[in-house]
């Protein structure tokens, strides 16, 4: 654990790292907001993050009374291929004051944090990066991507599957139907790698609706999809009215949507496409394989753009590779490089299939050589080891091992992170 008492700040010239205390949270959070060029002020969002911060898993770097570095971790459970829910540190709120940048403060916090995660016995750490270049040096690989789309709904039509017309839609006050939306979300979590089981309090994230973020759009709205009186899906969104000389050009700003079956999901998307006086659906952070991409008449007019999402770090290579399953049998020896967490370095034999896996130290000859960063990228099944080999980042030492591992690691469902943190 990070030390919880002062050593000699000032004398060594290095900020002191220690576990965050509740009475320090405001200074700590102000420092974070400043590093993100924000304005420290009272807000709904601030109140939520105060409630959600896990103090004993958060680190502050202090130079005297000044907080000059912040790093937090949430105790998430992450769905991995095969459907298991695996403990993962959700690394968050990382910042270093501009007065102390590029002196190794981030590096010292990452050192402390990964040692802590190992001590907690969690096999994974995950994060979303403000800039993708920062975290590779600490062994994180980009494990999921998502799509940001701006769909021209004046031109793009949606073809829907049979049963869509049987789904009934109704407006509801988002807070009033939170429980039923959460129940739908909970049923979706095991089915897609990258999804996060909801921790207590996190349901509030879906309702966060500060006026300062609306930029002229409506407050958050919710539509439920029902079949036979049962809620089978929901969409939460805002509508931003806009006009130009040719008429209405409003936007539908999708916050989130989940549904239990394809017809319910299609009914919700069709609704979003058809809202009167709007011309665009802005859907950001959507799964790479979501059905609407194959239901639209013109994908080009949806302007899809791909972005990195969840960065994955195997903190305990053996435990992490054992925690997931493999869609085809795999029996390979990895030679793993891990300069930042040397306890992972060396040879590991992974034997697994769709039922389970074992991953143990071995002295056998290696079949594939790679760094822990590539294992993190491939871990959730969305990035192919073959593609990483094509990029020169994985080396095949036994012929056939690359194809075997690439097929085994792949996920039939694209991994996806449902929300930022
Ligand atoms: C999970 C999250 O919360 S993501 C949010 C990250 N935070 C931010 O983006 C807020 C604004 N930025 C900052 O607070 C800081 O600049 C940080 C946290 C990104 C970096 O902190 P520093 O203490 O300056 O980093 P540190 O000195 O330890 O740098 C370590 C290495 O990373 C490199 N590095 C640091 N930041 C960046 C960056 N933004 N882009 C590229 N490289 C970077 C450094 O050059 C250094 O490289 P070297 O080892 O080859 O010399």
TrEMBL record:
<dbReference type="Pfam" id="PF13527">
    <property type="entry name" value="Acetyltransf_9"/>
</dbReference>
<dbReference type="GO" id="GO:0030649">
    <property type="term" value="P:aminoglycoside antibiotic catabolic process"/>
</dbReference>
<feature type="active site" description="Proton donor">
    <location>
        <position position="135"/>
    </location>
</feature>
<dbReference type="Pfam" id="PF13530">
    <property type="entry name" value="SCP2_2"/>
</dbReference>
<dbReference type="InterPro" id="IPR016181">
    <property type="entry name" value="Acyl_CoA_acyltransferase"/>
</dbReference>
<feature type="binding site">
    <location>
        <begin position="94"/>
        <end position="96"/>
    </location>
    <ligand>
        <name>acetyl-CoA</name>
    </ligand>
</feature>
<dbReference type="InterPro" id="IPR036527">
    <property type="entry name" value="SCP2_sterol-bd_dom_sf"/>
</dbReference>
<keyword id="KW-0012">Acyltransferase</keyword>
<feature type="active site" description="Proton acceptor; via carboxylate">
    <location>
        <position position="421"/>
    </location>
</feature>
<feature type="binding site">
    <location>
        <begin position="130"/>
        <end position="131"/>
    </location>
    <ligand>
        <name>acetyl-CoA</name>
    </ligand>
</feature>
<dbReference type="InterPro" id="IPR022902">
    <property type="entry name" value="NAcTrfase_Eis"/>
</dbReference>
<comment type="subunit">
    <text>Homohexamer; trimer of dimers.</text>
</comment>
<dbReference type="GO" id="GO:0034069">
    <property type="term" value="F:aminoglycoside N-acetyltransferase activity"/>
</dbReference>
<protein>
    <recommendedName>
        <fullName>N-acetyltransferase domain-containing protein</fullName>
    </recommendedName>
</protein>
<dbReference type="InterPro" id="IPR041380">
    <property type="entry name" value="Acetyltransf_17"/>
</dbReference>
<dbReference type="InterPro" id="IPR025559">
    <property type="entry name" value="Eis_dom"/>
</dbReference>
<comment type="similarity">
    <text>Belongs to the acetyltransferase Eis family.</text>
</comment>
<dbReference type="Pfam" id="PF17668">
    <property type="entry name" value="Acetyltransf_17"/>
</dbReference>
<feature type="domain" description="N-acetyltransferase">
    <location>
        <begin position="15"/>
        <end position="161"/>
    </location>
</feature>
<dbReference type="InterPro" id="IPR000182">
    <property type="entry name" value="GNAT_dom"/>
</dbReference>
<dbReference type="InterPro" id="IPR051554">
    <property type="entry name" value="Acetyltransferase_Eis"/>
</dbReference>
<feature type="binding site">
    <location>
        <begin position="102"/>
        <end position="107"/>
    </location>
    <ligand>
        <name>acetyl-CoA</name>
    </ligand>
</feature>
<keyword id="KW-0808">Transferase</keyword>
